[in-house]
Amino acid sequence: MAAPAVPAPSPTTTPPHPAPPHPTVLTRARRHLPRLGALAFLAAIGYLVIAPLVGLQRLAFEDDARGYSAAFDSPDMAETLRTTAGMALGSLVIALVLGTFLAWAATRLPPRLRLLRVLPVLPIVVPAVAAVTGWAFLFSPRPGYLNAALRNLPWWDHLDEGPVDIYTLPWIVLITGFGLTAFVYLFVSAGFGNINAELIEAAQVSGSSPAGVFFRVTLPLLRPVLVYGGFVALLLGLGQFTGPLLLGRNNGVNVLTTDMYVAVSQSPVDYGRAAAIGSPLLLFGIAVVLFQKVILGDHSRFVTHGGKAFRSGGRPSWVAVTGILLYGLVALALPLGALIVVSLSAFWSGRIQPSGFTLYNFRRVFQESGITDAIVNSLVTSVISVAIALPLGFIAASLLLKGRRFRIIRAAVDFIVAMPLGIPAVVFGAGFLLTYSREPFILYGTRTVIVLVYVTLMLPFATRMQLSGMVALGDTYLEASRTSGAGALRTNTEIVLPLLRPTLAGAGALMFVLLTHEFTASLLVRAPTTQVMGTILFDYWANGSYPLVAAIALVMTLVTSVGVFIAMSVAGSDIFEKL
Fold first, then answer.
1. Which residues touch 284 (CB under 8 Å, ≥6 apart)?
2. What is the arithmetic mean of pLDDT over 172-200?
3. Contact 384, 508 (CB under 8 A)
4. What are the backbone dihedrals phi and psi of residue 437, each rounded to the nearest 5 degrees, phi first?
5. Average pLDDT, the chain
6. Contacts of 218 (CB under 8 A, 6+ apart)
7. Over the stretch 164-173, which tens digit does the pLDDT of each residue have?
8. Where in the cell is it found (predicted)?
9. Distance between CA atoms of residues 544 and 474, nearest Å
10. What is the mean pLDDT of residues 329-344?
11. Three-class SS of residue 469?
12. Three-state secondary structure along 141-153?
């Protein structure tokens, strides 16, 4: 019987692959959302930082560059430029020498006196306007306390005033140098921490003396931080405003910053001339920012430490202890002591009379509505500015650290957030006064314009400190969060921000300190009805109410000291080094 026929298998038909779905509009929008957000952030901070500067320069070039003609055709401009350069260079030399010595001395302190390392930083805590007025109370030609004491010595007992005149350029340079020393100290101290101890030990084993080790090994290794710190100190010296305004203006000592202030405080306001006067400061500030980003961008080229960090090879030095204590006495204790004496006196004279001490001036500070309103304004605007600057700094730091997909946007953000640190505050103050006293934003006389200028000035600090915290945090936690399926928003809110809480608290407290004694930009954008502590102090100084000035200065110092204490409590004693 024949076997049944088996049907041939039918050919297997492979079903066609479905065509990939076309991305929807929503999908495409989500894909480009990060780039659009980065562009929007860049536009916002770009307008905040750059628009005031561009507006000033536009007015300077109007009418065939009338602003530049009015500024630089003046017969006094050459002398102003020489004075500005001389003050900046002189204060730079003082700051470099003192700052380097103090940084070395901090490495040679006995173990039980290591706390003295913070002493050279404390002058940053004292508001510049308070420190300058304190020096004036000490060395004014006739009623200055130290001048009166010096006239009792046989060398100067024939004088009716002096022998020191605090209102002259050499003494303004000296005071400015003392103020800049703390910044150089921070840079050089960080440089000491990066030096490989093995290099120092090798030089000592080879028979070099301590002086030889310092000048042949340590100092050359510190060259990068000295160069960079020197540029920063030079920039700060060129932009000095408080000392020249309070001490030099009435004695014919003019610098670019005070000339800018005169141009925008006179009637009618001459913004074009003010912009032209500030152009050298603007150009130099931009050059320093570019130098930092381009020339010093690769910081790893300057790392000199190996397995062992720097430690002093010499024995503890009492010369180091004496030097730090002497600097603290001169730069901190003397001006504060003068403020205390004047604030407790009924009037300022060359004699200290403890029997006449009174708290009347402090009662006036908290009873006069104009002063209390200024204190409240200062505190409120500082808190609001910190609350705005922190999230802006977080976004900027995130872009700088992880925005590799947006290279152009990242580079632009990096440059823009660094500009307020390189360009003097007086330039921004004039720019904000121009931008926000006319259409489309008329904000003159309100707290809002003060908040805007404060946020702009704090962008570098908010970004730098949070960037340091993110770098220290590393990528482990972020990768674990992403692996678990969390998006960027959830990762930042539930992982990054809680871990950065000490950094955020320290950054906020430090910015609050810097803002409560901000004076330069505030003086330009304030209105008679909207004052802060620094500007009300200046008004009373101009009116000759010196005991009240001293009381206000001490209140400012107390506020900033509390802020520093909080900052150091939540972020560590090295908070200033994180800048």
1. 235, 238
2. 81
3. no
4. -115, 15
5. 82
6. 104, 192, 195, 200
7. 999 999 999 9
8. Cell inner membrane; Cell membrane
9. 55
10. 92
11. helix
12. CCCCHHHHHHCCC
Closest by CA position to 523, among listed 273, 246, 284? 246
**Strand 441-442 with 437-438, pairing:** antiparallel
As beta bridge partners, residue 442 has: 437
Half-sphere exposure of 531 (CA within 13 A, CB side): 17
Task: Specify burial of residue 467 (Cβ count, 10 A radius: 0-12, 13-18, 19+).
Answer: buried
3-state secondary structure at position 126: coil
303 vs 438, more confident: 438
pLDDT of 146 > 70? The answer is yes
18 CB-side CA count, 13 A: 3
Report the half-sphere exposure of 338 (CA within 13 A, side-chain side): 28
Dihedral sign, Cα of residue 153, residue 158, residue 161, residue 166: negative
> Which residues are CB-contacts of 414 (< 8 A; sequence separation ≥ 6)?
293, 400
Q: What is the pLDDT of residues 276-333, one digit of tens each?
A: 998 988 888 888 777 766 655 544 344 444 444 445 555 777 888 999 999 999 989 9
Under 8 Å between Cβ of 67 and 61? yes
d(CA 10, CA 20): 29
CA atoms within 13 A on the CB side of 407: 0
Q: Tokens 């290279």 map to which residue?
A: 407
